[in-house]
């Protein structure tokens, strides 16, 4: 028990000292997900200060807190020119990126003055000026590849392409430092005349789709009629092929026989080109 109580004394003293340092401004804290960049006599340390409590050295060094979390860049009211040489009225794009926490001090040395301090939290956003310029160029280059009339249908494709291009440019300058997590095209507003053209194009597309359906229906109906006609023609051919001269003569003889067997008649029917003797039915004398 005595050993445990003695071991707690230094920890208690250290806690009191740290508390006093914080109270008197001799210590500070780095929030979770952030890192600190220490500058001593104008020289930036290459080692990042990890989250937690750190000691200050007034008049000798200072520490700035930088975000190692996902950072958003919002570009608004852009007016890039499309492939058909028509400028957009308004385009809003958001790009989200992260920076490897261990590389933030080096970025601060390489891109001095390019980090931006968040007005609300007071935390610095690393190299945001550099990323913003690359994003802006990527947006303008991507819009220049797409016609304004179809741009509203290609938001996802354009966002994916912008993300790839921004990531490639960042990797070319600083490999394995930046990660572009996502790109969102929030708004695409074209010129009013273009909007009218888009509406007309959509209406014409709907008409074309309806006409295509009607054409397909007509083709199917025509195919049905052709199939029916072919069936009738084949049936007629089968019937015609079965009507031989002998068969027709047989049918004629059967008809004449039936006609001759009927009573109360004295008519004689002699078919043309008849090869057999005519059938004559003479009624019996009744004696009246």
UniProtKB/TrEMBL annotation:
Give membrane topology per the record.
Single-pass membrane protein
> Per its UniProt record, what Gene3D superfamilies does this chain match?
Band 7 domain
The protein's matches in InterPro entries, at most eight in alphabetical order, are given as: Band7/mec-2_domain, Band_7, Band_7/SPFH_dom_sf
**What is the protein's major site of localization?**
membrane
Domain Band residue range list: 29-222
Domain of life from the UniProt record? Bacteria
Location(s) in or outside the cell: Membrane
Q: What is this protein called?
A: Band 7 domain-containing protein
| Organism annotation | Niveibacterium microcysteis
């Amino acid at each position: 028990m005595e050993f445990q109580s003695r071991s707690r004394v230094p920890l208690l003293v250290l806690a009191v000292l740290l508390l006093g340092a914080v109270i008197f401004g001799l210590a500070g804290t780095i929030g979770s997900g952030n890192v600190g960049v220490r500058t001593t006599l104008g020289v930036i340390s290459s080692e990042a200060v990890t989250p937690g409590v750190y000691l200050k050295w007034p008049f000798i060094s200072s520490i700035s807190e930088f975000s190692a979390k996902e950072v958003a860049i919002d570009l608004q009211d852009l007016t890039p020119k499309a492939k058909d040489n028509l400028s957009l009225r308004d385009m809003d794009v958001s790009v989200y990126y992260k920076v490897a926490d261990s590389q933030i001090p080096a970025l601060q040395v390489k891109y001095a003055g390019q980090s931006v301090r968040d007005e609300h939290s007071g935390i610095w956003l690393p190299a945001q000026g550099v990323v913003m310029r690359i994003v802006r160029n990527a947006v303008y280059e991507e819009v220049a590849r797409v016609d304004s009339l179809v741009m509203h249908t290609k938001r996802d494709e354009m966002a994916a392409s912008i993300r790839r291009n921004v990531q490639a440019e960042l990797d070319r300058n600083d490999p394995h430092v930046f990660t572009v997590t996502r790109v969102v095209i929030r708004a695409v507003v074209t010129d009013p005349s273009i909007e009218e053209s888009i509406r007309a194009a959509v209406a014409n597309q709907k008409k074309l789709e309806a006409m295509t359906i009607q054409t397909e229906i007509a083709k199917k109906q025509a195919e049905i009629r052709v199939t029916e006609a072919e069936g009738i023609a084949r049936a007629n051919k089968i019937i015609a092929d079965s009507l031989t001269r002998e068969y027709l003569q047989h049918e004629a003889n059967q008809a004449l026989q039936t006609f001759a067997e009927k009573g109360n008649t004295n008519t004689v029917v002699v078919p043309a080109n008849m090869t057999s003797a005519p059938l004559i039915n003479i009624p019996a004398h009744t004696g009246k």
